[in-house]
Structures are given as C-alpha cells and as structure tokens.
Amino acid sequence: MINLETATYALFGGILPALVWLVFWLREDKKNPEPKKLILRTFLFGMGAVVIVLFFQKWVDILFPGTTLLAIILWVVLEETFKFVAAFLGGLKSTEDNEPIDPIIYMITAALGFVALENALFVVGPLIGKDVVTSVITGNLRFIGASLLHVVSSGIIGVSLAFSFLKPRGQRVIFAVLALILAIILHSGFNLAIIHWDNDGAMFAFGLVWIGVILLLLAFEKAKMIAR
C-alpha cells in the first residue's frame, strides 16, 4: 500500500534529480531564457505524458505479451511520441519559440518532466517494501542512465528543429519526423542492449548515451550561432 510518506519520498526522489538536470540544461539558454511559466507547463505536460503512455503500454503488454522486439519498439514509440506532444503543447507552439535554441530547451524540458514521474514510479516499488537502499540505488542508476537517455533522444528532435529553424514549415516537419525515427532507434537500441546483453550491454548503452550528451552540448553551441 502506498501511503503519503512513501508517495512523498518517491516524488522527491524522482523530481529532484530531474530538476538538477533541468537547471543544468537551462543554463545553456541563460542569455535569453524562456518564460518560467512555459518551462513549468512543459515540464508538467512531460509528467502527464507518463500517465498516458502507461495506459497505452498496458495495451501493448496485453496484445504482445513478454519483452518481444515489437513490444519494446512500440513502448519506445509511445514514449518518444508523447514526449514530443508534451513539448509541442508546452512551448513549441507558443510565440516564445522564436530562436533556434528554443526547440532544444522545450524538448529537453518535456523529457525531464517525463523522467521525473517515471523515476518516481521506479523508486516507489522498493519503498513499498521498505527497502530504502534499493530505492536509492535505483534512483541513482536512473539519474545517470535512463534520465540522460530521455534527454538525448528528445534532444535529437530539438536539434533537428533548431537546425531547420529558418527553413519552410514543410521541411521542418520532415526534419522532425526523421529525428523522431532516429530517437526511436536510439532508445530502442538502448533498451535492447540492457535487456539482452546484460552487463556488457549496459556498459555499451551508458557509454553511447554519454557520447550523445557531449554531442548534444556541441549542438547547443552550434544552434546559438544560427543567424535569425
């Protein structure tokens, strides 16, 4: 049974790491920061996306029981799609999305909102059994792994929108769709490596994600130089 204390610890353990990452990434846009209300809205929409995704993932589990390749890909498609929807509703469709770096900020913010609630749900399991150590370890592993995976995969879409910022709308849509497909491939590969390659797969996947973080930071700097 989840009591108030357990729920509070789980939310704290899930949201706090996500907020740490959010502060880190928002510093990349400190010269012309996005309105706090839009950042908050995007973050909350990202959290809300988890609830919707879980509903549809339950149906995937029913239709395709077990960790089959198709099920894994469908889970990822749902997560990446609804993170994008959260970013779009949160800030991408607003008039504040007015410089190349902004799409990256909104995509990462939505991803971290998603991470916050998803992490809380992972942390709450051990807490219900009063296994605080396991809960802390779970939270830390997700802090350095799965959290960054969501950031990188959503960041790919943000970068595509940033680099196509001055292009016609139709081309931007094509860039976004291609980036979404790439994000799904990366995310699916991460999950498959963790599931099927054990420790070696985990090391490879985490290494790949950290390379993605470095490339994302470089993309931030490049986006800042795109002339409006």
From TrEMBL:
- Family annotation (Pfam families): PrsW-protease
Superkingdom of source: Bacteria
Sorted alphabetically, which keywords does the UniProt record give? Membrane, Transmembrane, Transmembrane helix
Q: Which regions form coiled coils?
A: none
- One MF term in the entry's GO annotations: peptidase activity
Residues spanning the membrane: 6-26, 38-57, 69-92, 104-128, 148-166, 173-195, 201-220
Q: Which PANTHER family match?
A: PROTEASE PRSW
Q: What is this protein's record name? A: Protease PrsW
Source organism per entry reads Candidatus Zambryskibacteria bacterium RIFOXYD2_FULL_43_10
Show the taxonomic lineage. Bacteria, Candidatus Zambryskiibacteriota
